[in-house]
Amino acid sequence: MLSAALLMAALTTPALFADELDDAQNLVRQGKLSSAADLLSAALDAGTGDERALRLALADLRLQQGDPQQALRTLESLPAADDHDVSLMLGRAHEMSIDVLFNQGVDQATIDGAYDAAQNDLEKAFELRPDDNSSSVWELGKFYLYRNNWPDDAIKLANEVLATTPDDGEALLLRGAASAYTYWNASQNEQVDEANSIWQQAVDDLKQADELLPSTRSEPLGQLVWFYEVQNISGKAVDSARSLADRSDEPDLSLLYRLALKYRNEAKYEASGRALEKMVEISARTLTNMIKAEADPTATARLLTGSIDAFHRRGDLAACRSILSAIVASEPNDYRTWHTYAVVCTDTSRFDDAIAAYEMAIKIDPENPRTYNDLGALYQFSLQRENDKSKELYAKCIEVADHQLAMESTPDDVRQLATEARGLAQGNLNGLKPAGGGLLDSMMAGLRGLNLPSSDDGEGDESADDAEDTEESAGEGEETTR
After folding, report:
1. Closest listed residue to residue 10, CA positions, set 43, 48, 56
2. For 320, left (φ over 0), alpha (ψ -120 to 50), or beta?
3. CA 259, CA 41: separation in Å to the nearest integer?
4. How far apart are CA 63 and CA 40, in angstroms?
């Protein structure tokens, strides 16, 4: 997209250094496009500066504002017959107007007219493209690809440019994007070798395009996420999505959220956790709100709590706490989520948060004896105060455990946990100085209550993720269709 770059070029033309245009330049940097458009309109009315540059810049702003009709009116006085930039801007405006007209419910003939005008203008721009500007390659290729569903024509267009300019970022991006279609078709037809060859070429193209194009261009990384996903390379898919979020002033976190859920469901805890980590770094509140918006927020919170497994294994408790803090802010009605958060807060010396989390866990599941023991242990060993409170909690733990053990209908797993919790509480209660390091035993009991996978499951997953990334980085050409 030309966007601000075209406007900045117009505003830095020596003839355009009027005060109001310096102000417009600053407004563009701040993202205040409406105010900048008003200033450019005023400059046009006053006859200030280069009319062609101003009209192109103003039309581009109108497109960013979603108003292609205003863009077309802005351009109508400019001759387009032999002007690449004007033809390209007209093509973009006509293409955007297709969707606007459709949403307005106008007749099909009018929509078809906009469609034909867009294709004609974009093809004209491609014919007129200067050596130092290949933006029309991507714009026309996108039209072929997404409007006409012509991936072969898009690839042919890209190859035409790459034959003479092999390091053209726009053409590499187009060939990579169009290859998604040909890769998918080969995969569906079980042409494994062909699919893998297309995949490798597409990834190479998109990586190179990402290096060549300005960092503001999000398309290469967005395409790479998809290509890594289809080959189950979870780490690189998330890394690409994280980089994509880093490059935007106002990132859309829905991609990271989708990947977090996808890879948690696939037991890829490292990838899921890294997606959540980046979300929290950018906006913890957004993660909280996305969980709240789910049909079952509690089930989603419980699921994502397990994503901290990889961070917990390597001792990155600060990351665990920041992720869990955003998750519990969704107010899940789930004992394990709150208990997990309480243990992590205890381990990171956030004792007030830990107490509040334990109390919430007790409120949700008052019949779980372990929580009473763990909260008592926090008062006894971490805070080293309020012995009466600890005694009260240990006594409650023993009471609840005895009740469960006395019932013949108590399941074996619950009976085992009750026996374990009772033993810990009794040991802690005996003089509040249990032998053998009661704090460690109590905290280990708490850790067993985490909503995390078993060690065997986690290690198997991390090895699988490592194998994927090692295979891909050592020789992407050896990837296989899964």
Report:
1. 56
2. alpha
3. 43
4. 14
Cβ–Cβ < 8 Å for 361, 335: yes
Per the domain annotation, does 384 fall within a domain?
yes
Q: Which domain holds residue 373?
A: 335-450
Torsions phi, psi of 279, nearest 5?
Answer: -60, -45
* 348 within some domain: yes
What is the torsional sign of CA 7, 8, 14, 16? Answer: positive
Which residue type does 302 have?
R
Domain-ending residue, one of 36, 65, 94: 65
Instruction: Report the domain count for the chain.
Output: 2
Tens of pLDDT, residue by residue over 56-97, are: 989 988 998 899 999 999 999 998 778 999 999 999 999 999
CA distance 337 to 307: 11
* Six token digits for residue 167: 């390091």
CA distance 181 to 149: 9
- Note whether 43 and 49 are within 8 A (CB): yes
Using the Cα atoms of residue 26, residue 32, residue 33 and residue 35 in order, give the sign of their dihedral: negative
Percentage with pLDDT > 70 across the chain: 84
- pLDDT value of residue 189: 95
Please, are residues 90 and 96 in contact by the beta-carbon 8 Å criterion? Answer: no
Q: How far apart are CA 41 and CA 35, in angstroms?
A: 10
Q: Give 223-238 pLDDT, tens digit per residue.
A: 999 999 999 999 999 9
